[in-house]
């Protein structure tokens, strides 16, 4: 029993020390790092941009943007990095929401601006709508295009091309630091 308590105490100390290495455990930005010798991107969070390397945590160690206590830090040398892309966390969702609202507003304005329909005597009319009804239909029909456009715009990623060049990386390092967990 005494050995078990000592083991649990040591384990909690090790896990706690690992979690304390990160000043901010909630990711503000997601990153995609493309290496020179691979066509697949490494997806996750940049912890820190050092002089000659990037410290990175894979997305498998993230839960809802938070870094798990048992994360594995990867150190990626600049000479192996082709491209780094990043995007603000939750930006596709926020873009979709703003796009849907914008599409509904635009559809409602266009529908209302078209005015009331009139059916002249002696003519045959199937659909006759008031300006308010057209505004409602325009709002409903504007949601889907606005949602799609907002999602596409919100999913946009900023790109930094490094091509394994240290001098190019040095020029971009301050920008990369803004999008890392440490922020400096």
Automatic annotation (TrEMBL):
- Entry keyword set: Signal
Its recorded name reads Glycine zipper family protein
Give the signal peptide as a residue range, or say none if absent. Answer: 1-19
